[in-house]
Amino acid sequence: MIVRYLLLISLCFIHCAGAQKHITQIPDTLKGRDFDYLFDRIEDSISEGQRTIYLLTFLIKAKSEKNWEELSNAYKNYVHYAPDRLKLVYADSMVLAAKKSNDDEIIGSAYLSKGIAYYGQKRLKEAMDIYLIADQYVKKTGDNYLIYKTRYHIAQIKYYLGFYEEAIEIFKDCLNYFKRGNVRAYLNSLHSLGVCYNMVGNHGLCTSVNETGIAEGIRTGNFDMEPYFTHSEGVNQFMIHNYPIAIKKIQSSLSGIRKNKDFANETVGYFYIGKSYWELGEKGKAVAFFKKVDRAYTERDYCRPDIREAYEFLISYYKEKKMASTHLFYVERLLEVDKKLHLTYAYLQGKIRKEYDTQELVQDQKKLKRSLDLRKYNDLIAFSLTGTMFIFVTFVIVRFFKNKKEARLKYEELLQKIKDSEKAKENKTEETDFPISRDSEAAVMQSLQKFEKSRKFLEKDLKLAKLAVYCGTNTKYLSQIIARHRNKKFNEYINDLKIQNIAQRIRNEKHLRNYTNEALAEEAGFSSTRRFVNAFLNSAKITPKYFIEELQKEAAGE
After folding, report:
1. Mean pLDDT throughout 308-325?
2. What is the CA radius of gyration of the chain?
């Protein structure tokens, strides 16, 4: 922070010195011009040299007149056109000038622009903090445009942190407001809404929004957002397994996105092109695109929890190729990426189960290093099994059989749950302070039992509110009844029902044992393979793979 303010003071000094140095070089025709004229020239300048003159003239004029609003705007101009390393320094100057105006609208607008500068560098935590400060000021102004603009940017952070439902509601509000008179803001809101629909699995609505966005752009003559709607639809097509279409759409969108120097969406595009090729079995092509995701990280320090999976594919690829050095390189890179993601996406990290958890990666890293060291020093390979080694090996063997025994016990527990599922007894614990009448409670329980028997829990992404409507009660009472009679929170309750059902089906329907985890996830009513595997592990304490293997052993008489 001290370094930033020292740099800020230095820049102010440079501007003052620069003003004295260049004042005679500013054309006389500009001396009587107002701020609107200068701003238009800044926007319309063809060359960097021309823009520099107009930027400096705007700044000098605002300073000499002690016009704090325009001085704040002068620094905002610099924030827009300055290189990334200086944007936040100018943003501090912008906020300082705005505060001197004592005007909530000017201060709120300055904070909003500072937040956007942070967001442009994908420093999302800092951006969110600044947006919330901006929100406190703009709420006092009655300026609806500024209020909705701030809400839009807050919704963007919510989207990146994984709060998709909350973001959707805000984007809908922004859409209704901006539709009345701001075409670009309307199209931006429309695009963001479509992306959120994709993330919650509503692919039909996503396509509809993308088509509307392209049509509205054509109708209004605003084509800047067309590549983004095409890009969004490409990702959407990937989600519904139309991989060739996904590749074609995303590739066609990238030139427009590169033109805007939007490295973030460009990187996301590379990831989904790579993943599409991977699903099509063209792993060599996929790896080339995953390496572009890695380049965005090394050159831009950019990664997101969803595209971190590129490293998992790279690890898998080089492990399969037995290229230990490259395998190790990407294991260590993923460990590094995960540390940074944990800081930025703390909220989202708890929602995503990674195929390679940190402990597994660390162990993999150690094994690979050990393997490479042994290759380099072949003369050290031949060693005798000393007492220490014997103890170590004994420990490993004991540990192996202990883990195997524990897994077997978990498997037997799951089988017992399946056998007893129809005989499960409800918890009849008396609670004198339970806030629901016995009649109401009994009615809800009857609906809940009907819900379980009809297997309506297989619906993907079932919400508590929807189940509450089905049971004829509200979400608060339903949560309390589930906790009282099933001893679980809502999500755990639904996931356990799904896992018990699919486990029972796998046991009784032998053809399901040949299904992939992706296919089993679909059968079980989960919206993604990861959620299914994670839920199975949480509920049964063993993986679906282990469960199926044990069933097959029993079937073979082992």
Report:
1. 92
2. 30
Would you state the pLDDT for residue 79? 87
Give the pLDDT confidence of 194-251 residue by residue, as tens digits.
999 998 889 999 999 999 999 999 998 989 999 999 999 999 999 999 999 999 999 9
Q: How far apart are CA 453 and CA 360, in angstroms?
A: 39
Evaluate whether 110 touches 136 at the Cβ level (below 8 Å): no
Tokens of 444: 């809800």
Distance CA(451)–CA(84), nearest Å, equals 55
Q: Note the pLDDT of residue 408.
A: 59
- The answer to whether 92 and 126 are in contact (CB under 8 A) is no
Which residues have C-beta within 8 Å of that of residue 496, sequence separation ≥ 6? 488, 535, 539
Average pLDDT over residues 371-379: 56
Kindly state the DSSP code that residue 140 receives in the 8-state scheme: T
Residue/partner pairs of 426-434 with CB below 8 Å, 24 or more apart:
426/485, 427/484, 427/485, 427/486, 427/487, 429/484, 431/484, 434/480, 434/484
**What would the pLDDT profile of 275-291 be if each residue is shown by its tens digit?**
999 999 999 999 999 99
User: CB of 369 within 8 A of CB of 328?
Assistant: yes
Q: Helices 124-138 & 324-344, crossing angle to 10 degrees?
A: 20
* Both structure tokens of 313: 């594919």
DSSP string for 364-406:
HHHHHHHHHHHHHTGGGT-----HHHHHHHHHHHHHHHHHHHH
Going 46 to 47 to 48 to 49, the CA torsion angle's sign is negative
Q: Note the pLDDT of residue 166.
A: 85
pTM of the model: 0.55
